[in-house]
TrEMBL record, chain A:
Matching InterPro entries: ABC_transp_permease (IPR001851), BCAA_transport_permease (IPR052157)
UniProt GO BP: amino acid transport
Cellular component terms per the entry's GO annotation: plasma membrane
Record has DNA-binding as a keyword: no
CDD domains: TM_PBP1_LivH_like
Protein name, per record: Amino acid/amide ABC transporter membrane protein 1, HAAT family
Family: Belongs to the binding-protein-dependent transport system permease family. LivHM subfamily.
Lineage, uppermost ranks: Bacteria, Bacillati, Actinomycetota, Actinomycetes, Micromonosporales
Keyword entries, A-Z: Amino-acid transport, Cell membrane, Membrane, Transmembrane, Transmembrane helix, Transport
Predominant location category: membrane
Positions of transmembrane segments: 12-30, 60-80, 140-160, 189-210, 222-250, 262-280
UniProtKB/TrEMBL annotation, chain B:
Keywords: Signal
Domain of life: Bacteria
Gene3D superfamilies (UniProt xref): 3.40.50.2300
Family (UniProt): Belongs to the leucine-binding protein family.
The protein's name in its UniProt record: Amino acid/amide ABC transporter substrate-binding protein, HAAT family
Keyword rRNA processing carried by entry: no
InterPro entries: BCAA_transport (IPR051010), Leu-bd (IPR028081), Peripla_BP_I (IPR028082)
Domain Leucine-binding protein: 38-381
A UniProt-annotated Pfam family: Peripla_BP_6
Amino acid sequence: MSSFLQHTFDGLVSGAFLALLALGLAVIFGMLRVVNFAHGAFYMLGAVGTYLLLTEFGVPFWWALLIVPVALGVLGMGVERAFVHRLARLDPLYNFLLTFGLTLVLQDLVKLRYGTQSSPYATPSALAGTVDFGLFDFPAYRVFVLAFAVVACVAVWWLLGHTRVGMVVRAATERPELSRALGIDVGRWVMPVFGFGIALAGVAGVLAAPMRAVNPLMGADLVIVVFAVVVIGGLGSIFGSVAAGFGIGLVQAWGESYLDQWPIVAQTSVFVIMAAVLLWRPAGLFGREEAPA
Amino acid sequence: MDRRVGVAVVGALGLLLSGCGGGGPQSSGDSKLSGDRIVLGVLNDQSGVYLALSGTNSVKAVEMAIADFKAKHGGDAITDDITVETADHQNKPDVANTKAAEMYDRLGVDTILDVPTSSAALKVADVAKEKKKLYFNISGATTDLTGKSCNKYTFHYAYDTYMLANGTGRAVTEQGSKNWYIVYPNYAFGQDMEKSFSTAVTGAGGTIVGKDATPFPNDNFSTFLLKAPTLKPKPDVLGTMQAGGDLVNLVKQYNEFKLREKGVGLSVGLMFLTDIHSLTPAALAGTTYTDAWYWNFDAENRAFADRFLKETGSRPTFAHAANYSAALQYLEAVQAAGTDDADAVVKQLEGKSINDVFLRNGKIRAEDHRVIHDAYLAQVKPAAEVTEDWDYVKILKTIPAAEAFRTPSADCKL
């Protein structure tokens, strides 16, 4: 029983990363109809930035958790204005290619400057211990990551559901043409929303620095799973992406621990689930099928 | 029609190649060297995960070998014109294949050195065999280089999966850690390593209480780390076959889950000095692994490491030292043979016993071209004992050359 709880908890922690990243993708896709392939690269920049703040400027983890997402958000807004914006009217494929290219550029810039060697980053000392839950204990830092991600997801949900900005974003996501017809200036919100999505990737990156290898390629593999998560949850669905993020985290953890005779099953489960969901509900579990234009 | 075009192209290529190959020696009059010079080719990863452990610094090491060779022989050296060509194979077998062929054919390279990544290493062995040119593999791990893929022109210089497993697996088991839990990345290298380790551990009287294949690459090992202390009987040691970024992930998370405090030690299948540097010794304190060479082992190694530090800004890994040694021994063999003719140099090298900064009690086995030498069981020092940058490990024991490597494989027919 205690080991089941442990594995469940563990699944939720890795789900937290998937949820944060998927949430950012969903927000961006909803508003801009852009599949941001560079999301993994921004996650990587979050972690590398955290490392650099510490080594170059002596800025500790807690400040990085504030500074890095803000900085990446600003960078994201710049990218939106400079590139994404210009391709908005064209076929979505153009922005897909653009963000894919951006990934390669960002990865190689980091490689060029800092090499491919993984950089060390210690767990913040306040969270270096373990938390005792009675039946099992768990690294304190992971408990923090889970709590932080849950709070962040709830905050985003609240922001979208209960503020004027959120209403505009939801309206623009669901019926962009109608929103414009009603006099809502959708265009004004595109840039900040893109920046916000990128900032969420930055948060995930900062959280990853103490527990994962910080190197230029850290986002490249993760982003593939995140895309599967977003597709499972339903492209553009905020709730769907968060739920699917945590769900996939759990499935992976349970699969790896209880199907360990067949490692390949656990490793491919995400994509099998994605294929099954697409066959059954092409718009994803929580997505809404768009009426043909 | 198609076939005729194909034949014509192949024919034209053949003419071109034979033209190039024949042109050198003919124009060189009475010289015994092709093109009147010696060219060493360093083919390795210069932009990816294996950059730090070998990469461009191995080129520097080879340049150091050339300088030392010239200094030793002075005016008697077979030639003064010794240069290095280098290329990035990006750890891709197809790129390695093309670059190797280009080095031998177009750049006049006499021997290729290094070549990490087993799949790429094997491809280059095929090229060497086809072109009848020398090839010293340094940083590839697969025993196939001296097994079913061995050939007359290929030498495997520094280490292999058998050496790592036999060194670490056996020694750690004999020191009392009987129960092993092995995690390995689910691809050729990892599967090879898992098999070698399991054999070595059970051979020494230990038990494999569990083994798990992990995704590759992977950034989350928590499932396996949670599982480790719950296995029955509880494992004494977690043996990880992960390398590069995956190893960093695993070690970080091993520390996070406090497995050492829970009585599960850590043993690493393949680790380089640069890995310890990037993880910090504190994260790895107490970890045992097999090293092919250590820079601070004795005064001779240290003197080399000091020069290397001056050249590159970092201490040498065993791959750097082995590249230096292989380049030097190749040049000595050419000097002794009086020619760079591949067959004559091979004859010089086969069966030769060598002692240099890298090879201790070294011998180039004629049977399979495995270069055997002393290996070392190393342990990462606790942070408190690290008093000098890069001096991260202590050598627990020297594994004599004869024990460190497997006996020649029956699969190898040179």
